[in-house]
Amino acid sequence: MQVDDHAEELASDLGVDKEEVKRDLQNLLQYSVPIEEAKQSVRRKHGGGGGGSAAPTTKDVADVTPDGGNVTVTARVLTVGERSIRYQGEERVIREGELADATGKISYTAWQDFGFEPGDSVTVGNASVREWDGKPELNLGESTSVAMEAEPVEVEYDVGGDSTLLDLEPGDRGRNVEVRVLEVERRTIDGRDGETEILSGVLADGTARLPFTDWDPRDEVVEGADLRFENVYVREFRGVPSVNLSEFTTVSVLSEPVAVRDSAPRLSVAAAVGSGGMFDVELVGNVLEVRDGSGLIERCPECGRVIQNGQCRSHGAVDGEDDLRVKAIFDDGTDTVTVVLDDGLTEEVYGGTLADAKEAAREAMNKEVVTDDVAETLVGREFRVRGNLSVDEYGANLDATEFEETEDDPAERARDALDSVGDEGVSA
User: Fold this and answer.
1) Where a domain ends, among 253, 278, 307?
2) Owning domain of residue 247
3) Does any domain span residue 161?
4) Do 114 and 207 belong to one domain?
5) Does the pLDDT at position 52 exceed 50?
6) I need a labelling partner for 139 at 20 to 30 A (CA). Which of 77, 146, 191, 315 fits?
7) Are 144 and 106 members of one domain?
8) Mind spelling out the 3-state secondary structure of the chain?
9) Do 275 and 237 belong to one domain?
10) Could you tell me which residues come within 8 angstroms of residue 155 by beta carbon, excluding any fewer than 6 positions away?
């Protein structure tokens, strides 16, 4: 059923203008309020009560689905996080995290403080269900009841939010991490209340590195600091998890330094692409091709996009700024990925500066001479590349932070692989 249909049904029941009801519904839906809860809110606003909602069904967590109506579940509280959102033009604090029982776990959003904490066993009555990131999520609203249970619900999951960076996933809420701040910068962005200062950068622990954003900049968050963050939430940023600190996040300085993994995990291209995106990964393979749009290029001075014939897709006709870039097809025998080298790494493989490239193009009266030189250096050779991998509907791209020709002997590595297979065959 579309919003228009819901609005028409409500307007008919309440005897009010359909367009006003539709505006009320759309305002709630844009903040991801489930449609049934939104309809109940509109009914209350116009004096229609809670409507004729069906009685909730008692279910195990594994049986909860978005199309099954309101539910009652008995579960263990795994995590609790707090965050403020803009709701119907006002700031509102929500609590969110995960619940679990013996059959599985499910995320939740509570639109008020029901008083439960991690480790509590509760019966949540009359919770609505929505789909969030392809999975069901419980929504605890005004019509929801929460009762504490004396007997603990047994679960196979860890209670509390402590996590490593490697285990974080987009959608996690109420998580706690102990990290070292590797990089940090203060930026001004156009936020929901106008210009807003934030901190952004890179965190690390013994398992991984991830980007972060501090939406309420703290003095403790400085480069080199070893810190414990409690109550962070995780969003997807360019295909990888990103740690977010809200005004409810607590930050404390650790007395002992955090052990940081210096190297990136080395994976096959297929395994890396199959992960859906990784912030820091290392691949080894061969450059098959240097793609168009490599070598000496021009960028829009406004947005930094590569322009063609003086035209930017966003800003129209512009005076482009010269730059160097490489986009290379990279293959290790399991899959391919497009590796992107910035100006610094491109200068290294080209063996010259931007000024050198411009001079070469002037002498040849053709920019393609730079691309040809780069291709001659790269194609057919084996390289180790480290960087940040994103995967979307357009393919897999790795923005390189390190790029160098391997010193390994491919024949020796092949012999080692064959020996390994032979040993496995003998042991089998």
Assistant:
1) 253
2) 175-253
3) no
4) no
5) no
6) 191
7) yes
8) CCHHHHHHHHHHHHCCCHHHHHHHHHHHHCCCCCHHHHHHHHHHHCCCCCCCCCCCEECCHHHCCCCCCCEEEEEEEEEEEEEEEEECCEEEEEEEEEEEECCEEEEEEECCCCCCCCCCEEEEEEEEEEEECCEEEEEECCCCEEEECCCCCCCCCCCCCECCCCCCCCCCCCEEEEEEEEEEEEEEEEECCEEEEEEEEEEECCCCEEEEEECCCCCCCCCCCEEEEEEEEEEEECCEEEEEEEEEEEEEECCCCCCCCCCCCECCHHHHHHCCEEEEEEEEEEEEEECCCCEEEEECCCCCCECECCEECCCEECCCEEEEEEEEEEECCCCEEEEEECHHHHHHHHCCCHHHHHHHHHHHCCCHHHHHHHHHHHCCCEEEEEEEEEEECCEEEEEEEEEEECCCCHHHHHHHHHHHHHHHHHHC
9) no
10) 75, 76, 78, 100, 101, 102, 105
Biggest CA–CA distance in the chain, Å, is 83
Asked if 69 and 34 touch (Cβ cutoff 8 Å), the reply is: no
Backbone angles phi, psi at 379, to 5 degrees: -65, 130
**What backbone phi and psi angles, to 5 degrees, belong to 151?**
-90, 125
Tell me the pLDDT tens digit for each residue of 164-198.
Answer: 998 898 889 899 999 999 999 999 887 766 788 99
Question: How many residues are there in the chain?
Answer: 428
Listed residue (85, 103, 150) closest to 123, CA to CA? 150
Residue 232 CA, distance from chain mean position? 13
Q: The tokens 């990136």 sit on which residue? A: 264
The answer to the question of residue 154 being in a domain is no
Compute CA distances 30 → 3, 112, 330, whole Å. Answer: 12, 19, 41
Give the number of domains in the chain: 4
* 240 shares a domain with 297: no
Please name which of 247, 193, 187 lies closest in space to residue 211, comparing C-alpha atoms.
187
Tokens 């600091």, located at residue: 225
Whole-angstrom CA distances from 60 to 71, 72, 255 are 9, 9, 43
Phi, psi of 127 (to 5 degrees): -90, 135
Listed in sequence order, the residues at least 6 apart from 365 whose beta carbon sits closer than 8 Å to its beta carbon are none
278-316, pLDDT tens digit by residue? 899 999 999 999 999 999 999 999 888 999 888 898 889
Hunting for tokens 């279910």 — which residue is that?
Answer: 59
CB 75, CB 124: distance < 8 Å = yes
Q: Is the pLDDT of residue 203 over 90?
A: yes
Q: What are phi and psi of 339, to 5 degrees?
A: -95, 130
